[in-house]
C-alpha cells in the first residue's frame, strides 16, 4: 500500500513538466520561465455592453460553488499605472503608440503581480479582457500589427478565451440601455471616421470585429454568439469550462 | 534616405525628414551629457534649430515611473515598458515631427540604452528590439568608452547614496549597493560593446580631456551636417 502511494507521488512529480508556465512567444518573460502553474486561466473578451461582466459574475459564482478559488483580473486595474492612463486620455495629448505602450505596461504589472501569482497558487483566474483587446484597439488606430503582436507576446497563454461576438447594431442598443450616451473612445471618435457619433460607433465596432476575426485562429479564441440570450450564452461558456476542468482532473495535470 | 530599424515604419508616413539625429550613449559617468551639452551650445550659437531631449523625461510618463521606482515595485518588464512609453511619448510628440521639420535633434541616450539595460535586467533582446523598431536610426551615435572604475568613481564620489534601480539592486547581484552598481554597469558596458559595429557607434575615448573629446565630436557633427544639409553645413565654417 505504502509503496503504491509513494509511486503515485513520484509519477505526479514527474508530470510537473506540463505545469510549466506557457508564454505566447516561447521566449516570454525570461526570468519567469521556470515558474509552475497550478491554476486555470480563463479570458472573456468582447466590446463594452457585450455582457462580459454578467457572464464573469455567473462563471465566478458557479466555480466558487464548485469549490474553486477564483481571482478576477482585467485591463486597467493595476494601481501602479491606471491613474496615469486615465489622465493621459483626458488631456488627449498622448500619441497612439505611446498609449499602446502605456497599456502594455499596465498589463505587464497585472500579469506579473496578480495573474501569475494567483495561477501559481492554484486559483482559477478570470480576466475581463486581455491582450486581444489591446491589440485590436491599436491595430484599428493604424499601429503595425506585427509590432503589436510581438509587443504583447510576453503574455501567458490562457486555457480558454471566450469572445462575445455581438452585432454592432445590437450592441448600440445595449449601450444606450446602460448609459444613454456613447463613450468617446468606445465609439472610436478619436479615429475621425465619422462626424456622427452613431455612425462612428457602428463603423468602429465593425473594425474591431474584423480584428478579432483575424485573431481568432491565431490565438484560438472561442467565438460566442453574443446576440443570444444571457442564459444561452452562459450555458455555452459553462459547458466549455466544465469540459476543460474535468479533462484536467482526469489527466491529473493541466493540458 | 531615412533608415528605419526593423521593417515596420509606422502608419506609412512618408519618409521625408530632413533633420539630423545625433545621439550620445555610454554608462553613467562616461561624460556623454557634458559633451552633448557642449554640442547643443555650439549649434545654438551658430543659429541652428536644435532640440535637446533626454532619456526618461516625458512629463506625462515620468510621474508614474518615479512613483513605481520609489516603491521599488517595478519588475524588469514594467521598468522596460515604462521607459519605452516615455520614449514613445517624446518620439511622437517631439523627435519625429521635429526631424521632419528639419531640426537637429540631440538625444542624451536613445534606444541603445534600453537595449543594453533591459537585456541586462533579463528581458528578451529581440522583444526589446521590436518595441523600439519604429525609431529612426540616428545619423550619428557617439559612444563614450571609459573604464568602469573611472565612471563608477565619478558617480559615487559626488553621491552619498545610490538609487535602488540605478544600482541595479533589483537584480540581486550583491547586497552591497556599490558592488551591485559596479557589476551592473559592467554588464551594461558588455552590451554596449556588442553593439559598436552593428550600430555604427563612433567610439569616443571618455578618458581624454573634455576639450579634446569635444573637438573630435564637433568634427563628426560638421561632416554629417555638410552631408545632410550643405547650406547649413557651410554656415559652420
Features:
heterodimer, A: 255 residues, alpha/beta, five-stranded parallel sheet, 9 helices, B: 237 residues, Rossmann fold, transferase (chain B), EC 2.7.4.9 (chain B), Thymidylate_kinase (chain B), kinase (chain B), ATP binding (chain B)
Structure in words:
The complex is a heterodimer of chains A (255) and B (237). Chain A has 255 residues and is an alpha/beta fold. Chain A has a domain at 35-164 and 228-245: Rossmann fold, CATH 3.40.50. Helices cover 53% and strands 10% of the residues of chain A. Chain A has a 5-stranded parallel β-sheet, sandwiched between helices. The longest helix of chain A is centred in the middle third of the chain and has 25 residues, at 96-120. Chain B is an alpha/beta fold and 237 residues long. Chain B has one domain (16-147, 200-235): P-loop containing nucleotide triphosphate hydrolases (Rossmann fold, 3-Layer(aba) Sandwich). Chain B has helices at residues 32-45, 59-70, 76-100, 111-121, 125-131, 148-157, 177-195, 210-228, 230-235, and strands spanning 20-25, 50-54, 104-108, 140-145, 201-205. Chain B has a 5-stranded parallel β-sheet, with helices on both faces. In chain B, helix 1 crosses helix 8 (210-228) and helix 4 crosses helix 7. The radius of gyration of chain B is 18 Å and the shape is globular. The two termini of chain B are 25 Å apart. Mean pLDDT of chain B is 88; it is low at 1-14. Chain A binds chain B through residues 25, 27-31, 80-81, 83-84, 87-88, 93-98, 101-102, 104-105, 108-109, 112-113, 142-144, 146-147, 150-151, 153-154, and chain B through 8, 10-11, 60-61, 63-64, 67-68, 73, 75-78, 81-82, 84-85, 88-89, 91-93, 122-124, 126-127, 130-131, 133-134. Chain B: Belongs to the thymidylate kinase family. Chain B: Its EC number is 2.7.4.9. Chain B: ATP binds at residues 26-33. Chain B: GO terms for molecular function: ATP binding; dTMP kinase activity. Chain B: Residues 24-214 form the Thymidylate kinase-like domain. Chain A: It catalyses: dTMP + ATP = dTDP + ADP.
